[in-house]
Amino acid sequence: MNGISSAFWDLLRPQAALAVGALAVLAAGASRRASLQVVKGLALAAVVVALLLLMTVRLQVVCLPLLRSDLLGSGLQAVFLSAAIPLLCLMEPADEVPPALVLGSLIGMGLIAVSGNLLMLFIGLELMSVPAYLLVARSRSPQALEASVKYFFAGGTASAIYLMGMALHFGAAGSLVLAPAPGPAGAAGLALMAAAAFFKLGAVPMHFWLPDVYEASDPELAGFFSTGLKAAAVLFLARLAPMAAPAGALVPALAWFAVLTILFGAVVALRQQNLQRLLAYSSISHAGFMMLAVAAWAKQGLAAPAAGALFFYLAAYLFMSGGAFLWLKAAGVRTRAELLGLAKARPRDAAVLAALLLALAGIPPTAGFAAKFLVFWEAFKAGLYAPLLLAGLGALISLGYYLGLIRDMYFDEAGPEPAKAVGPTPARWFALGCAAASVLLGLTPWLMDWFRPGMFGLRP
Amino acid sequence: MTQGALTILWLLPALGGLAALAGGRFSRWIALAVSLAALAYGFWLLGPLRTGVVAAAPQAPAWAFGIRYALFCDGLSLSLCWLTAFLTAACVVASWKKDYSAGYWAAFLFLEAALMGVFLARDLFLFFVFWESVLIPMFFIIGLWGTAGRRHAAMKFFLFTFFGSIFLLIGSVALVTLQHSATGVWTWDMAQLKGPEGRAGLMIFAAMALGFAVKVPIVPLHTWLPDAHTEAPAAGSVMLAGVLLKMGVYGFLRVLWPLFPRLSWQMLPLLGLLAGINVIYGAFCAMAQKDLKRLIAYSSVAHMGFCLLGIVSRKPEGLVGGSLQLLNHGIITGTLFLLVGFLYDRGHRRGLGDYGDLAGRAPWLTFFFGFTTLASVGLPGLNGFVGEFMSLLGMARTWSIMAVVGVAGVTLAAAYALPAFQAVFWGAPGPDSVSALVYDLDAREKGLFWVMAALMLAIGLYPGPLLRLLEPCLLGLAQ
Q1: Domain that holds residue A383
Q2: Who among B132, B151, B173 is closest to A377 (CB)?
Q3: Which of A311, A340, A407, A448 to probe by mutation at the B interface, max B CB count within 10 Å?
């Protein structure tokens, strides 16, 4: 009993640190003497402490009635905690509430990472999402409120669908643990819960809220949604994977939805003029690759290397996509027209974005290539041949806009509305760091070694 | 020859590229020094190669899934590395007077590094990474320093070749995974990989062949080529036609033939037919061109058909001749693109009808253009003849009808190249001719072409050393 409760608190330590941090942030905000810089610093410190606590938790598989930990969960928790760091550094809140909201959202994500039970998963989901709706509403864009309401209704629908699925599952299985439920009711329950995960992930056909939300959010917030929130949503989907029988029909269905998501995101992104919207569709397309990795993982009976591929994809995506959004903030660019001829006027900014775009496109020798390669590899091993080919086609289509942006910057003369504004210096450093990481993670393939079977060798 | 000795060959240009990026106005000097150093180093490697240590066993530990950093070098690799280094140096010299930024010189060095990597890689994964890395500098070379249609041509080039690469990657993954399930060992080592039999083998072969065929290019996958070659700057066209096309044939020789010895031999009818089509189709397309650069681009399609005829024949003379023709075509077509580039620098036009009567105005340009054209159409005594003759000889022993088609192609080559030469240099100038703008080659340009012409003549008269260099690594592929 004692051992169990100590493991229980071990798993909750990062979340506890975040909660204490959130309270401290709110208290500091209320005291009126602490400046907003102090408030932001407190929030940042909470995230860093949570990261450190996460590292000190022994990396092992623990199964408790409500909680459990595994390496995929811990790894992805590190990803979304890291994703919050640039957001907390760069956000310009009017009061203490937004930093506290970020911490609240991170607590929810952390609960998803350690949940071993459908109810716990739901609590994590809600705790993650509700602050996100509010953060969108606090953005500076005139469409922020509209986007927030849209996000709220889409998210509320997802929660309702999830609860419906959970009820069906409970009826069929008689318990809420993450295990397959018998009969059609069990399958229907799982399908409904997966649909809720699709909402959170922005997978086609539940993606419609995502471009509006990303476009209306401040760039640093959209970057956090695209990397941190996405990692949590993927983890949410992956948590449901053990409930599907590897031989069942739901796993191939997931692969086909993944393909649909990849192709839809890539095709629609081709015509976007607003860069945040373009990156939003690009993130839909990337979500498809993550879903394909989940499908390959489930198809191989939750074999460990496939989870490694999933983790590497999200870790690389943290830098590529996060970097791209931060670049938008750093360069003060909003539309494609402003990119025209940017390489002549601001060669350094252009080079940073070009590196990020090549990584997003998956061109060797960048991290994006290593990530796509690992996913293709696992999909092949899982026997998902047709989805794999179509995913390759999606990668080809996506070149149309990634390279298209590079073409705009490098091969065109400056347009009628060149970008003049330059964003804050810290954002430039973050973007540069992300670009360097996106390239170096691919140039140092031995890093892939860390994600080898050994690391994820334990079955969740 | 150790891994380290081979690493220098690609790392030197890569580091040189970084230096050139930072070099400001010294970039072109850095590019010249590095490309010449790489060339000299490549020649020096001949010594270790001769002493017999051809391919050191890969010593690097495997990364995930048996991926290793493993390089390898034999006569074929080394000669293609020479070609790469030589043409890069030629490109630097040819663009010397241009007012280009540091990025231009760096891009050529990065391109050289990636190409060297392709020709040296022994690990299939490493091969693919270098293969794809070639696209990035070339994309910028076409798009930044090309002519009017460069934006479109750069995108088309990248998308087309990336399309092929996806199949190459999927084929490689399938190959390695199937081998793992059969033997329990993860390996990407080309020397240890064996293509599976049956339907799986056929699909893998088809996927990888598609990847290589786009690069060669095999008709009908060639449509990226005329645009890319025409819109690229002169030096970019040289690297495209001179080296990038060779990657495709090299892939067939180095990857597909050893992996699938039986299957690739059974594919002879299809591959031979495609090669024959390349020869004839490329020639007819070249005949119809009004643009000098486009004409040379299509002639490359035809010439790569000859290389394919040679290597598909799987006879020793065909394999060696096809490989030699890779080098010959690199030198000849590289020279032609440089000449057209110089012509374009002066007259700012590329049309056949835009010039005329240049022979008296620019005798040296006329001389070198004529000399190279003759080498291109296969005049005995110049290098083009040796490669084409040996390729056709090999094909004649395997499938004589295709050899006849090839001979017809040689005739057709004369039929498009000579009239074009005549129109530009002796034709009557039209009313809007820009011939008056054309002045003769200066000392730098003449020096460059003397080297090129000497190479054409030397290989044409005495190909023995090169043939002896290529032979040992190709005989094992003969059927």
Answers
A1: 247-460
A2: B173
A3: A407
- SS3 breakdown of chain B: % helix, strand, coil, rounded to 5? 75, 0, 20
CA distances from residue B467 to A50, A115, A239, B74 in whole angstroms, order as listed: 66, 68, 62, 13
- For tokens 């905690």, name the residue: A81
Residue in the structure block whose two tokens are 């030469």: B421
Q: For B198-220, give the DSSP string.
A: HHHHHHHHHHHHHHHHHHTTPTT
- Cα–Cα distance measured from residue A18 to residue A20, given in angstroms and rounded to the nearest whole number: 5
Give the separation between CA A198 and CA A236, rounded to whole angstroms.
10
pLDDT confidence tier of residue B91, bands split at 50, 70 and 90: very high
Q: Is residue A283 part of a domain?
A: yes
- Cα B462 from Cα B464, distance rounded (Å): 5
Q: Which residues of B touch A452 (CB under 8 A)?
A: 64
Domain assignment present for residue B213? The answer is no
Query: Residue B304's domain spans which residues?
Result: 267-479
E strands within B252-347? none
What tokens appear for A125 in the block?
A: 């989901």
Asked if residue B233 is part of any domain, the answer here is: no
Identify whether B281 is part of a domain.
yes
According to DSSP, residue B359 is labeled T
Q: Is A421 part of any domain?
A: yes
Report yes or no: A396 at the B interface, CB cutoff 8 Å.
yes
Burial (Cβ within 10 Å: 0-12, 13-18, ≥19) of residue A31: exposed
Does the distance separating the beta carbons of B174 and A411 come in below 8 Å?
Answer: no
Residues counted in chain A: 460
Which among B128, B158, B177 has the least Cβ separation from residue A381?
B177
Residue A447 is assigned to a structural domain of this protein: yes
The model's pTM is 0.92
Residue in B64, B154, B163 nearest the CB of A407: B154
The number of domains in chain A is 1
Summarised one tens digit per residue, pLDDT across range A390-435 is 999 999 999 999 999 999 999 988 777 767 777 788 899 999 999 9
**Nearest Cα to A286, choosing from A217, A370, A353, A362?**
A362
Between chains, do A445 and B128 touch, taking CB under 8 Å as contact?
no
B319 and B394 in contact (C-beta within 8 Å)?
yes
Q: How far apart are CA A117 and CA A356, in angstroms?
A: 38
Write out the two tokens for B475. Answer: 């005989």
Residue B229 has pLDDT above 90, yes or no: yes
The residue among A120, A94, A138, A95 whose CA lies nearest residue A15 is A120
Q: What's phi and psi for B142, nearest 5 deg?
A: -65, -50
Q: Do B170 and A410 touch (CB under 8 A)?
A: no
Contact status, residue B119 vs residue B248, Cβ threshold 8 Å: no
Distances in Å between the alpha carbon of A37 and those of A100, A213, B70, B139, B266?
A: 13, 27, 52, 45, 73
Percent of residues in chain A assigned helix, strand, coil, to nearest 5: 75, 0, 20
CB of B156 closer than 8 Å to CB of B164:
no
What does DSSP assign to residue A456?
T
Are A345 and A418 spatial neighbours (Cβ–Cβ below 8 Å)? yes
CB contact under 8 A, A448 and B63: yes
Longest Cα–Cα distance of chain A, Å, equals: 70
- How many Å is the maximal CA-CA distance in chain B? 73
Q: How far apart are CA B215 and CA B195, in angstroms?
A: 22
What pLDDT digit, counting tens, does each position of A72-120 carry? Answer: 888 889 999 999 999 999 998 888 899 999 999 999 999 999 888 899 9
Exposure class string for B299-322: b at 16+ Cβ within 10 A, else e: bbbbbbbbbbbbbbbbbbbbbbbb
B417 part of a folded domain: yes
User: Which of the residues in chain A have pLDDT under 50?
Assistant: 1, 452-460
Does any domain span residue A259?
A: yes
How many domains are contained in chain B? Answer: 1
A208 touches chain B (CB under 8 A): no
